[in-house]
Amino acid sequence: MTIVAQAPNHTCPLCESNSTSPRQGYQHIMPGEWSLYQCLDCRTSFIDPIPDSEILAKYYDENYYGHGEGKFLGPVERIVQFFRYLRARTVRRLTPAGRVLDVGCGRGLMLRFLKSWGYEVDGIELDTMAAVRARQNLNQEIFHTLEEPDRFLRQQYQAVCFWHSLEHMPQPGKALEIADRLLSPGGLLVIAAPHMESIQSRLSGASWLHLDLPRHLVHFDMERLAEFLQSRGYQLIKHQHFSQEYNVIDTLCYLYEVLGFKRLYPFSLIQGMHRHRTGGDCHTLKTIAGLSLMLPLTGASFLIANYFSLLRSGSTTTLFLRKALDLSN
Fold this sequence. Notes:
This protein has 329 residues and is an alpha/beta fold. The protein contains twelve helices and ten strands. The strands form two sheets. It has a six-stranded mixed sheet with strand order 5-4-6-7-10-9, with helices on both faces. The radius of gyration is 20 Å and the shape is globular. Mean pLDDT is 86; it is low at 1-5 and 272-282.
């Protein structure tokens, strides 16, 4: 497939600094010819060239969102729903009542829990299969972009969440500015994203699971992202380095690759799709070998991933921030 993209733009998409340079070891990454640049001020990395909307749409097709009602195979799907319940419970603990906006709400699973607990909820999702499922799950309209002023700017939200969505946005700095306008004083801002400066990212390099080019357009140093938001008046409530939802599978893929399996194996085994499957990994003997290693490697991955988290270097981390109160009134 021929990749045609927008002209390169080496301005940092977070802090808008022009002090950027190519990130060593991250040039011409497949699929396509994607490379990463890094901001020398806030250490944010970003994709170059920037894919246009037509190209990106090809990477958010049915193969990405899964077939049928769910994205994953049955047992994994139940685990995913449990983690979405944990997200909703965390929001409820930090925001006892009010209106919640989930930017990149996926199928609306977290919002469905919050809605059942009496919250008013809104979700934003690309006009994709996920948005269709979110409308069905929530029985309400789903918005497709933050830039819908007629509908949003009259609203004030007590919580705005970016659960693994900010890295998909070509202009995260602008997205955060809009979110700030929508968030009420004292409101909760949640940002979960891969941590580009984590130990696992450095070990995996260009084969890191969470690099996920070209869907992940921006890659954050989560410590610096917290500092960026604090400099704009937010109070950091908590920086959560533990994520059993993402960090264990990340480490598991790395261990399989060290043992000679294909990149991102066994991620394809637990998904209800086949976008990572290759002929080599479908070979019966190698598949049996891979499955036989699953239990011990998963145990090792759990220990390793949580050890990295103890070192405050989780592969994905979550920021919980509180917007400053308006003291002018």
